[in-house]
Amino acid sequence: MAAFLTERLPDVWSGLGGLPTAEVAPFLDQWRKTLHQAGMLAPSWPKQFGGGGLSHLESIILAEEFAKVGAPTGGFNDVFNIGMIGNTLLQWGTDEQKAHYIPKLLAGEHVWCQGFSEPDAGSDLAGLACRAVLDGDEWVINGQKIWTTYGHLANYIFLLVRSDPTLPRHKGITFLLVPMDQPGIEVRPIEMLSGDSEFNEVFLTDARCPKENVLGAVNGGWAVAMTLLGYERGEAAAVVPIRFREEFDRLARLARSTGANQDPTIRTRIADCYTRVEIMRYLGMRTLTAYLTGHEPGPDAAITKLYWSEYHKVVTELALDILGAAAMTPEGRWPSTSIQTDDPGAPDDSASWVGTFYAARGGTIYAGTSQVQRNIIGERMLGLPKEPG
Ligand SMILES: Cc1cc2nc3c(=O)[nH]c(=O)nc-3n(C[C@H](O)[C@H](O)[C@H](O)COP(=O)(O)OP(=O)(O)OC[C@H]3O[C@@H](n4cnc5c(N)ncnc54)[C@H](O)[C@@H]3O)c2cc1C
Question: Which of 45, 102, 265, 351 fits a disulfide with 332 by CB distance 3.0 to 4.6 angstroms?
Answer without folding.
Answer: 351
